[in-house]
Specification:
Elements lengths: L9 E7 L2 E8 L6 E3 H6 L8 E8 L4 E15 L2 E10 L7 E4 H6 L2 E4 L4 E5 L5 E6 L25
Parallel strand pairs: 2-7, 3-6
Antiparallel strand pairs: 1-2, 1-5, 3-7, 4-5, 5-6, 8-9, 9-10
Protein name: Aspartic peptidase DDI1-type domain-containing protein
GO molecular function: aspartic-type endopeptidase activity
InterPro entries: Peptidase_aspartic_DDI1-type, Peptidase_aspartic_dom_sf
């Protein structure tokens, strides 16, 4: 899992097991995660389908983890799919996170230019699912929407 600020990660509205949720999309994570508190909040009572032990490589540390695995139904826009999620204790940043493997497998395209999540159909036509939600303003340090030009020419 990558290092991030809660307000600077890409999020989309969606559903987890028919419960409204804010779903984090993390292109630096190779796994899907759900927190213990999210299982309670969404009243998900289904049993785990197994466990897995693996080493997570993070920016500043490595961590061995034994995780319970849950198969969950996810809905984003008009697309519903099932994915496997590892259960994690840490719940101060997100409830549910979808990693890059699932993003690719489900043919998602994150367009940061128009702030949209698309699904690519089998003919490679983009279908808009939803708008991205995050708090990043690239212009003028977030003060307004006027773009500031940068002149890279050397003085002569």
């Amino acid at each position: 899992m990558s290092l991030f600020s809660r307000n600077k990660i890409i999020k989309v509205p969606g559903e987890v097991e028919n419960n409204n949720a804010e779903i984090f999309l993390d292109t630096c994570s190779s796994v899907n995660l759900i927190t213990k508190s999210a299982l309670k909040k969404f009243q998900i009572n289904k049993p785990c389908i197994g466990t897995i032990t693996e080493t997570f490589l993070q920016a500043f540390s490595n961590n061995n983890s034994n995780s319970s695995i849950y198969e969950l139904s996810i809905k984003i826009g008009d697309l519903t799919f099932s994915e496997y999620f590892r259960l994690v204790d840490k719940d101060d940043i997100f409830d549910i996170l979808i990693g890059v493997d699932s993003l690719k497998r489900n043919r998602f395209v994150i367009n940061l230019v128009d702030d949209t999540l698309y699904f690519m159909d089998l003919s490679n036509n983009p279908i808009k699912l939803t708008n991205l939600c995050y708090d990043i303003n690239i212009y003028n340090n977030g003060n307004d929407n006027n773009q500031t030009e940068v002149n890279d020419d050397k003085e002569q």
